Amino acid sequence: MPARSLLLLLALLGWGGCAGVAGEAVRLDEKTTELSLTPYVSFFRDPSGRMTWEEVRRQWAQGQFALGADPRPSLGFTADAIWIRFRIAHHGPATAVWIVELETPRLDSVDGFLLRSAGQPRHFVAGNLRVPSPELMESVRPALPISLQPGEEVEFLLRVQSETALLLPLSIRSPSRYAAAQADLADTAAGYFGYLKALIVLSLIFGVITRERNMVTYALAMAGGTTFYLLMSGHWTWSFWPAREFFLKQGMMLAGSTGILLMIVFMRGLVDLRRNLPRVDWWTVRLIWINAAFALVLLFLPYRVGYQLFLTHALVMGLGLMLCTLLAWHRGVRAARFYALAWVGFWVSYGLSAVPFLFVRPLAAPVWEYSLRGVVVSGTLFLIAIADRVRELRRAARIAQDELLASERRNGDQLRLQLRQKQSLIRDLHDGIGGLTANLAILAELGRRHALGDRDREQFSRLSDLASDGGMEVRSLMRSLEAGEMSWEDLIDEIRRHGGTALQPHGIEFSLTVKGEADESGPGVYAGLSLLRLLKEAFSNAVKHAACSRVAVEAEFTPDRLLLTVRDNGRGLPPQRPATGRGLRNMAARIEEIGGAISHRSADGLELVFTLPLPIRFADPSAGSAPAAVPGPPPGTPELSVPEPAPRPKLFTRIRRALFK
Q1: Same domain, yes or no: 82 and 218
Q2: In DSSP terms, which residues pair with 74 in a beta bridge?
Q3: What is the average per-residue pLDDT within 127-134?
Q4: Which of 3, 181, 222, 644 is the most buried (most CB within 10 A)?
Q5: Do 277 and 357 fall into the same domain?
Q6: What is the pLDDT of residues 451-501, one digit of tens each?
Q7: With the C-alpha atoms ordered 449, 451, 454, 457, is the resulting torsion angle positive or negative?
Q8: Residues in contact with 90: Cβ distance below 8 Å, sequence separation at least 6, in sequence order
Q9: What is the phi/psi pair of residue 36, to 5°?
Q10: What CATH number is given to the structural domain containing 656?
Q11: DSSP letter for each residue of 185-251
Q12: pLDDT tens for each residue of 314-340
C-alpha cells in the first residue's frame, strides 16, 4: 500500500487528529509520574515482517510513518508487522528511572529497540509466544525499565506481530506509580478470577455431593470460560511450553466454545426443556452437536479466521439462548428469568469487548476486563438461577409431600375402616352363620338319636355332616380373614387339611403332591379362597358322584403359572352328556375371575386341571370377556363347555368388598 494511502487510512481510523504532537519527544521531569505515550507515537506497517530497524528508520526519515492520536489505538485483525516509534526526553535535574509499558497482553511477538545517541541499540523481546528478555519487568504486560540522564533523549522502535487484533496503548510511569498500577491490576485480576474460581470449586463440590448434574455442568462451563479469559488476558502465557501457540490460540477458542456448549446443556436442564418446551428441546439437542462440531472445526482454521468466527458465534449463541430462556419464562419457568438476565449481561459486555476487533474503535478500559465483567455478572446470575430453580423444585417437592401425606391419611382412614368392616364381618360370621351351623349340627345329632327308622337316622346323619362342613367353611374363612394375607404354603396346608376331612370319612384315599417352587408373593386372600373353594367343590363332587376310592391332587409351580390337577379313579362323566352341571359352571366362573382357566378329561376317572398364570391377574369385569387363554393340559384334552357364570353368593360378595374396596 502506498505511504499516502496508508496515512489517509490511519487518519480515517482516528490516528491523525493530533499531528502537531505525534512524532515529537515526550518531555519528562521530576514532577512526572505517569504519562500516556500514545499521542506521541507514529506507526508504520511492514507487510513482509522482515524489515530491520535500520530500514524502518530510513522509512521514518522519508516520512512514511503515520501519526497516532487515539488513547487506545486498534489496528484490527492483521498479519502485518506494525512498527511503533516514539522519543523520550528527560529534563529533570538528576538521573531518573522510568518504566515504559505496552498495556496489552494479547501480542504474539514484540521486538523492542532502544536507541541512544551513540552505540548500538538495546534489543529486547517479549510476547506470549516468546521467552521474554531478562531486563523486562515480571508482569502480564511487557514493561521495560530505562535510566535517563539529565537532558538525555532516547528513541524507541517497537515491532509488534500478532495474529489477533492489535490494541496498542503505551504509557510511561515512575517506579512508584508503576508499582501502584501493578498492584491495582493484580487486585482487579485476583478479584475477578478468584471469584470465578470460587464459583467453580463450590459449584463442583456441591454438584458432586448432591449428584446434581446441572451444578456440575455449570461448574465445567464456568471453568471453560475462565480458562478462555486467563489465556486472553495474558495471565497464562506458557512461553516455555511445547506447542504453546496451539494452547494460546486454538486452545483458547476451544475453551470458549466448550464453555458455550456446556451453557447450552446447562440451560436445557435448568428450564427442563424436554417437559416445558419439547419442540425447542428437539432443536437444542441438535444445536449441542452442531456446537461440538464447530469447536472441532475451529482447531483446524487459521487463527485470525477462526477467532472472528468464534466472536460471532459467541454473540449469536448468547442471543439465541437469551431468547430461548425468555420463551421458557413466558411459559412459567421462573428460573429462566435469571438465566435470561445473565445472558443479557454477558452479551452486552462481550459485545463491547468485540467493538475494537470488529469495528476498529477504542475502549476506555482493557478489552479483557470488559468481557470478564460480563462473565462475572452472568456467572453470578447463572448461580442465582440454579438457586431459584432449586427453590422452585423444593416448593414443588413440598407440595407433593403434602399431597402424599394427605393421600396417606386418606388411605389410612380407609384402611382402618376396612379393618373395622373386616372385624365386623368376622364377628357376623362367628355369631351368625357359625352359630347357625353349630345349632344345626346339634339339632341334627339329637334328631339322629331319636329317629325311629334307619332312613330318618341316615338323613339326620347327612344333615349333621353338612352342618359340620358348614362350620368348617366358616372357621376356615375366619382364619383367612384374620391372617390378612395368604401364602402358597397356607393354601397347600388348607387343601391338605380339608381333603383329609372331606374324603377320608367316606373311605376315599387322599394324597397331595407339590412340584416346583412357589413364588414368595402368594395368592392373596381373595385368590386363595377362590382356589380353596374350587378344591372343596371338586372334593364334594367326588364324594357325591364319582364313586371313587382315591383322589389325588397335584400342584405344579412353574415360573409363569400354576397347574392344579385333581384326579379320581371313579366313573367319570357320562360320555353322551355335556358338562352343564351347576357345580362345574361355578368352578369355571370362579377360576376365570382370578385370570385362570379350567379343562377336564374323563378317562379312567375324572381329571380336572385348573391353570392359573403367575403372578395372578384378576379379570377386568368391564372388558366383557374372559382373560386370554392360558396354556392348559396336553393337546387332545376336551375343554369344559360353560354356558354362563352363576351369580356369586351374597356372603362371598360381602367378603370381597370388605377386603378389596
Answers
A1: no
A2: 167
A3: 79
A4: 222
A5: yes
A6: 777 777 777 777 777 777 777 777 766 766 666 667 788 788 888 888 887
A7: negative
A8: 28, 29, 96, 98, 148, 149, 150, 151, 152, 153
A9: -80, 130
A10: 3.30.565.10
A11: HHHHHHHHHHHHHHHHHHHHHHHHHHT-HHHHHHHHHHHHHHHHHHHHTTS---TTSTTHHHHHTHH
A12: 878 877 888 888 888 888 777 787 777
Cα separation, 540 vs 531, in Å, equals 14
CB 148 within 8 A of CB 95: yes
Give the burial class of 17: count Cβ atoms within 10 A of its Cβ; 0-12 exposed, 13-18 middle, 19 or more buried: middle
CB-based contacts of 572-575 (< 8 A; 24+ apart in sequence): 572/546, 572/602, 572/603, 572/604, 572/605, 572/606, 573/600, 573/602, 573/606, 575/602
Strands 81-90, 25-28: pairing is parallel
114/141 same-domain check: yes
Q: How many domains does the chain have?
A: 3
- C-alpha span between 634 and 487 (Å, rounded): 28
Check whether residue 258 and residue 383 sit in a common domain.
yes
Nearest to 470 by CA among 441, 448, 497: 441
Q: One-letter amino acid identity for 69?
A: A
Classify 417 as helix, strand or coil: helix
Are 196 and 162 in the same domain? Answer: no
Q: Is residue 447 part of a domain?
A: no
Which residue among 352, 383, 406 closes a domain? 406
Determine contact, residues 575/602, Cβ cutoff 8 Å: yes
Cell 417352587 locates to 517
Distance of CA 407 to the CA centre of its chain: 29
Residue 558 burial (CB count, 10 A): 12
Q: Examine the domain organization and report whether 227 and 135 are in the same domain.
A: no
pTM: predicted TM-score of the whole model, two decimal places: 0.53
By the 8 A CB rule, do 352 and 287 touch? Answer: no
Strands 509-515 and 550-557, sheet pairing: parallel
Residue 478 lies in a domain: no
